[in-house]
Amino acid sequence: MNNKLNEDRKFTLWVLAWPVFIELFLQFLLGTVDTLMVSRISDHAVAVVGFSNQLFNALTTLFATVASGAGIVIAQKIGSRREEEARTVAIIAFKVTAVIGLVLSVILIMLPRPIAEILQLPEELLPLAEVYISIVGGGMILTAIMSTLGTAIRNTGNTKGPMYTAVGMNIIHIVMNYCFIFGAFGFPQWGLTGVAISTVISRLIACIVLMFIFLGTFERRIGLKDFSLFDRKLFKEVLVIGWPLGINSASWVFSQLAIFSFLAILGSTELAARTYMNTLESFCFLLGFSLALASQIQIAHLYGAGKTREAYSSVYRMLRVGLPLVIVNAFILVLFGRHVLGLFTQDHEILSLCASLLWLNLLLQPGKMVNMAIGNALNAVGDTRFTMNISLIFMWVVATGCSYLLGVSLGWGIVAIYVCMISDEYIRAVLSYFRWKDRKYLRLREEDMSRNNSSQLTTEVVHSC
Fold this sequence. Notes:
xenobiotic transmembrane transporter activity, YsiQ, MATE family efflux transporter
């Protein structure tokens, strides 16, 4: 009884959300410091980092298919009291994503410049991009391992472990950045090359720490021989949930990468402005995103336990808190964003562009919050094909296609591109809301639980006779 109570407490929204929020908030602060440091090299360096990160985000979707699907299955299995199966799923996901990460690392080490050229990066940025992509991209296997281990640990209800690890990793990264950019404490002044090296080293340390946590995260400790485990049926469960998640995620990051390519066509000023805005926009939905992620874990756990009514209402309780926070944060950025941007760059053209984008961000963030929260809820109960389908349609037709048509072809620039992104978020938010309200997958779970209970009752009656 006590174990059940302790487990239920582990999966309350607040207990899950606050470590995720602290992790993301400190990452945001340290990421801001990171961008500030890189801006001391040049605005070109900032543009290269922003562009490269979009490329890396796009490539992570290749292993996010497995990692994200595994995370939801792990939470569902724990909710239904099948921890051994959850443990096996975590081990399988680790092995598969590590192999995918290794393949990506080799490709990025060998072909950094051709990849940047295909994605229309301006000629003056190619030398910096070649160095940064080859070094940071070469550590893609570390990103794959971090993603999978962090997701697995977090979906068992332990959100503190990944939080402490991420904070430590970012502190190490910032200290090393300071040493390599400014040549402090006798270190060589390597500029953007040093930033890339510090990124890889800090991620390596994080992988080691997460592995130690991962080995002891389930009731039965994971040993070396357990890494030979493979269960086709469980892996199929992961893929059934995971492949639409992967395509959904790929749709978003590749559409963002396409939009970054459009901005590169417009010029390095627009590219740098979008990179700075990405940093500021992260501030808007930190707590909201933390609540949405925690809500996904909680809903998957409740769904696995058959508590469908609690699962249904959970997302609305979260939105009542998250949505006002996002709106307030976006308005704060409108008031003070230009002053903050002055810490990163003194380029008047970039600052003027960002001043206009801050107002558009006030419209963007509420739609993004609702879309993210209800989309995560749908994913948690396994309704991943719906979120995939609307992403494929509206991200590419509205956000990407209209961005090129209005922003590049008609020459209306980055403001038109933002309007297209806003439209996409609101359309998908409305569609997701009506899908969640329909309760399709929750009703299927209720029917499944009813059949199981009837079958169990019949068995008990037969045995008693």
